[in-house]
Please model this.
Amino acid sequence: MKLNERGLLVVISGPSGVGKGTVRKALFEKRGHNYTFSISMTTRKMREGEVEGKDYYFVSKEYFEEKIKSGSFLEYNYFCGNYYGTPLDKVEEALDSGKELILEIDVNGCQQVKEKMPDAVTIFIVPPTKQALYDRLKGRGTESEYKISERIAKADKEFKLAYMYDYIVVNDEVKNAADRITAIIRAEHAKTKRSLHKYYEMLGDIEK
Ligand code: 5GP
Model:
Protein backbone atom coordinates (compact mmCIF):
# COMPACT_ATOMS: atom_id res chain seq x y z
CA MET A 1 0.00 0.00 0.00
CA LYS A 2 1.37 3.39 -0.96
CA LEU A 3 -0.30 6.04 1.09
CA ASN A 4 1.71 9.06 0.13
CA GLU A 5 2.19 9.40 -3.57
CA ARG A 6 2.28 13.05 -4.42
CA GLY A 7 5.40 14.94 -3.43
CA LEU A 8 5.35 17.98 -1.18
CA LEU A 9 6.19 21.49 -2.19
CA VAL A 10 8.59 22.64 0.51
CA VAL A 11 9.61 26.28 0.69
CA ILE A 12 12.84 27.06 2.50
CA SER A 13 12.93 30.75 3.19
CA GLY A 14 14.16 33.27 5.71
CA PRO A 15 16.14 36.48 6.00
CA SER A 16 18.85 37.20 3.48
CA GLY A 17 22.16 35.70 4.60
CA VAL A 18 20.74 33.20 7.09
CA GLY A 19 22.33 30.28 5.27
CA LYS A 20 19.32 28.94 3.36
CA GLY A 21 21.58 27.81 0.52
CA THR A 22 23.97 25.94 2.80
CA VAL A 23 21.13 24.22 4.63
CA ARG A 24 19.50 23.27 1.35
CA LYS A 25 22.78 21.78 0.08
CA ALA A 26 23.15 19.74 3.28
CA LEU A 27 19.62 18.44 2.76
CA PHE A 28 20.56 17.20 -0.70
CA GLU A 29 23.65 15.45 0.66
CA LYS A 30 21.51 13.17 2.81
CA ARG A 31 21.52 9.55 1.74
CA GLY A 32 18.42 8.15 0.08
CA HIS A 33 16.63 11.47 -0.20
CA ASN A 34 13.78 11.99 -2.60
CA TYR A 35 14.16 15.71 -3.16
CA THR A 36 14.28 17.75 -6.33
CA PHE A 37 15.67 21.25 -6.23
CA SER A 38 13.69 23.90 -8.05
CA ILE A 39 16.34 25.77 -10.01
CA SER A 40 15.44 29.44 -10.07
CA MET A 41 15.97 31.87 -12.88
CA THR A 42 17.84 35.08 -12.13
CA THR A 43 19.26 38.16 -13.79
CA ARG A 44 22.03 38.40 -11.19
CA LYS A 45 25.63 37.90 -12.34
CA MET A 46 27.06 34.46 -11.80
CA ARG A 47 29.33 34.23 -8.70
CA GLU A 48 32.57 32.34 -8.69
CA GLY A 49 31.94 28.63 -8.31
CA GLU A 50 28.33 28.80 -9.46
CA VAL A 51 27.17 26.61 -12.31
CA GLU A 52 24.58 27.49 -14.97
CA GLY A 53 21.56 25.17 -14.71
CA LYS A 54 22.64 23.88 -11.30
CA ASP A 55 22.60 26.92 -9.01
CA TYR A 56 20.46 29.12 -11.23
CA TYR A 57 19.49 29.72 -14.84
CA PHE A 58 21.30 32.99 -15.46
CA VAL A 59 19.40 35.10 -17.98
CA SER A 60 19.14 38.70 -19.19
CA LYS A 61 16.65 41.20 -17.81
CA GLU A 62 14.83 41.25 -21.17
CA TYR A 63 14.46 37.48 -21.23
CA PHE A 64 13.19 37.43 -17.63
CA GLU A 65 10.62 40.14 -18.36
CA GLU A 66 9.36 38.17 -21.37
CA LYS A 67 8.90 35.15 -19.12
CA ILE A 68 6.94 37.28 -16.64
CA LYS A 69 4.64 38.41 -19.45
CA SER A 70 4.03 34.85 -20.63
CA GLY A 71 3.11 33.75 -17.08
CA SER A 72 6.02 31.33 -16.82
CA PHE A 73 6.70 31.79 -13.08
CA LEU A 74 5.06 30.30 -10.02
CA GLU A 75 6.44 33.38 -8.24
CA TYR A 76 9.12 35.98 -8.82
CA ASN A 77 10.62 38.95 -7.07
CA TYR A 78 12.87 41.90 -7.78
CA PHE A 79 15.52 41.82 -5.09
CA CYS A 80 18.53 44.16 -4.70
CA GLY A 81 18.54 45.11 -8.38
CA ASN A 82 17.91 41.67 -9.83
CA TYR A 83 15.00 39.42 -10.69
CA TYR A 84 14.65 35.95 -9.18
CA GLY A 85 11.84 33.54 -10.05
CA THR A 86 10.61 29.94 -9.87
CA PRO A 87 9.89 28.47 -13.32
CA LEU A 88 6.41 26.95 -13.30
CA ASP A 89 6.95 24.11 -15.78
CA LYS A 90 8.97 21.85 -13.48
CA VAL A 91 6.76 22.31 -10.40
CA GLU A 92 3.78 20.08 -11.22
CA GLU A 93 6.00 17.60 -13.02
CA ALA A 94 8.15 17.04 -9.93
CA LEU A 95 5.20 16.81 -7.53
CA ASP A 96 3.28 14.36 -9.72
CA SER A 97 6.32 12.11 -9.87
CA GLY A 98 6.12 11.84 -6.08
CA LYS A 99 9.25 13.84 -5.38
CA GLU A 100 9.53 16.55 -2.78
CA LEU A 101 10.17 19.80 -4.57
CA ILE A 102 12.41 22.11 -2.56
CA LEU A 103 12.22 25.83 -3.27
CA GLU A 104 14.84 28.10 -1.73
CA ILE A 105 13.42 31.55 -2.17
CA ASP A 106 13.00 34.87 -0.39
CA VAL A 107 10.20 35.88 1.93
CA ASN A 108 8.24 37.75 -0.71
CA GLY A 109 8.33 34.73 -3.05
CA CYS A 110 7.16 32.49 -0.24
CA GLN A 111 4.08 34.65 0.30
CA GLN A 112 3.19 34.31 -3.38
CA VAL A 113 3.61 30.52 -3.28
CA LYS A 114 1.40 30.18 -0.21
CA GLU A 115 -1.35 32.15 -1.95
CA LYS A 116 -1.21 30.01 -5.09
CA MET A 117 -0.49 26.67 -3.43
CA PRO A 118 -1.86 26.71 0.14
CA ASP A 119 -0.76 23.11 0.58
CA ALA A 120 2.91 24.11 0.39
CA VAL A 121 4.97 23.53 3.53
CA THR A 122 6.78 26.71 4.48
CA ILE A 123 9.90 26.79 6.62
CA PHE A 124 11.51 29.92 7.99
CA ILE A 125 15.23 29.53 8.67
CA VAL A 126 16.50 31.80 11.45
CA PRO A 127 20.01 32.50 12.76
CA PRO A 128 20.89 31.57 16.37
CA THR A 129 21.43 35.31 17.02
CA LYS A 130 20.86 38.51 15.05
CA GLN A 131 24.57 39.28 15.21
CA ALA A 132 25.42 35.92 13.62
CA LEU A 133 23.43 36.95 10.57
CA TYR A 134 25.08 40.37 10.30
CA ASP A 135 28.53 38.77 10.60
CA ARG A 136 27.63 36.28 7.90
CA LEU A 137 26.44 38.95 5.49
CA LYS A 138 29.59 41.00 6.03
CA GLY A 139 31.90 38.01 5.83
CA ARG A 140 30.55 36.59 2.59
CA GLY A 141 33.04 38.70 0.63
CA THR A 142 31.08 38.54 -2.59
CA GLU A 143 29.22 41.83 -2.29
CA SER A 144 30.09 45.53 -2.17
CA GLU A 145 29.59 47.59 1.03
CA TYR A 146 26.47 49.11 -0.48
CA LYS A 147 24.98 45.72 -1.33
CA ILE A 148 25.76 44.44 2.17
CA SER A 149 23.92 47.27 3.89
CA GLU A 150 21.03 46.79 1.47
CA ARG A 151 20.85 43.11 2.42
CA ILE A 152 21.08 43.90 6.15
CA ALA A 153 18.21 46.36 5.86
CA LYS A 154 16.15 43.74 4.03
CA ALA A 155 16.97 41.06 6.62
CA ASP A 156 15.85 43.39 9.43
CA LYS A 157 12.42 43.72 7.81
CA GLU A 158 12.20 39.99 7.12
CA PHE A 159 12.88 38.97 10.73
CA LYS A 160 9.38 40.18 11.53
CA LEU A 161 7.64 37.84 9.07
CA ALA A 162 8.25 34.53 10.82
CA TYR A 163 4.60 34.35 11.95
CA MET A 164 3.49 33.60 8.38
CA TYR A 165 5.33 30.30 8.26
CA ASP A 166 4.37 26.75 9.14
CA TYR A 167 7.73 26.05 10.81
CA ILE A 168 10.72 27.91 12.24
CA VAL A 169 14.09 26.17 12.02
CA VAL A 170 17.17 27.55 13.78
CA ASN A 171 20.35 27.32 11.73
CA ASP A 172 22.73 26.85 14.65
CA GLU A 173 24.55 23.99 12.94
CA VAL A 174 23.89 23.28 9.29
CA LYS A 175 23.50 19.55 9.87
CA ASN A 176 21.02 20.10 12.69
CA ALA A 177 18.97 22.45 10.56
CA ALA A 178 18.90 19.92 7.69
CA ASP A 179 17.87 17.14 10.12
CA ARG A 180 15.02 19.27 11.42
CA ILE A 181 13.77 19.86 7.89
CA THR A 182 13.87 16.12 7.14
CA ALA A 183 11.80 15.49 10.28
CA ILE A 184 9.29 18.14 9.22
CA ILE A 185 8.88 16.57 5.77
CA ARG A 186 8.29 13.12 7.30
CA ALA A 187 5.73 14.47 9.72
CA GLU A 188 3.94 16.42 6.99
CA HIS A 189 3.51 13.25 4.94
CA ALA A 190 1.94 11.50 7.91
CA LYS A 191 -0.63 14.26 8.38
CA THR A 192 -4.14 12.90 8.15
CA LYS A 193 -5.22 15.53 5.62
CA ARG A 194 -2.56 14.25 3.21
CA SER A 195 -3.03 10.52 3.61
CA LEU A 196 -6.63 9.90 4.66
CA HIS A 197 -8.06 9.48 1.14
CA LYS A 198 -5.43 6.88 0.27
CA TYR A 199 -6.10 5.08 3.54
CA TYR A 200 -9.79 4.87 2.65
CA GLU A 201 -8.92 3.53 -0.78
CA MET A 202 -6.85 0.82 0.85
CA LEU A 203 -9.75 -0.15 3.12
CA GLY A 204 -12.22 -0.29 0.26
CA ASP A 205 -15.85 0.10 1.28
CA ILE A 206 -16.08 2.01 4.51
CA GLU A 207 -18.36 4.70 5.79
CA LYS A 208 -16.46 7.95 5.64
P1 5GP B 1 21.48 35.24 -3.97
O1 5GP B 1 21.72 36.42 -4.85
O2 5GP B 1 22.22 35.35 -2.66
O3 5GP B 1 21.75 33.91 -4.67
O4 5GP B 1 19.93 35.22 -3.61
C1 5GP B 1 19.32 36.34 -3.09
C2 5GP B 1 17.98 35.99 -2.50
O5 5GP B 1 17.08 35.57 -3.52
C3 5GP B 1 18.06 34.83 -1.50
O6 5GP B 1 17.26 35.19 -0.37
C4 5GP B 1 17.44 33.69 -2.26
O7 5GP B 1 16.83 32.73 -1.40
C5 5GP B 1 16.41 34.40 -3.10
N1 5GP B 1 15.96 33.64 -4.26
C6 5GP B 1 16.65 32.75 -4.99
N2 5GP B 1 15.87 32.24 -5.96
C7 5GP B 1 14.66 32.82 -5.84
C8 5GP B 1 13.42 32.69 -6.54
O8 5GP B 1 13.26 31.94 -7.48
N3 5GP B 1 12.40 33.50 -6.13
C9 5GP B 1 12.52 34.36 -5.09
N4 5GP B 1 11.44 35.04 -4.75
N5 5GP B 1 13.66 34.49 -4.39
C10 5GP B 1 14.71 33.74 -4.76
In short: The two ends are 19 Å apart (CA to CA).
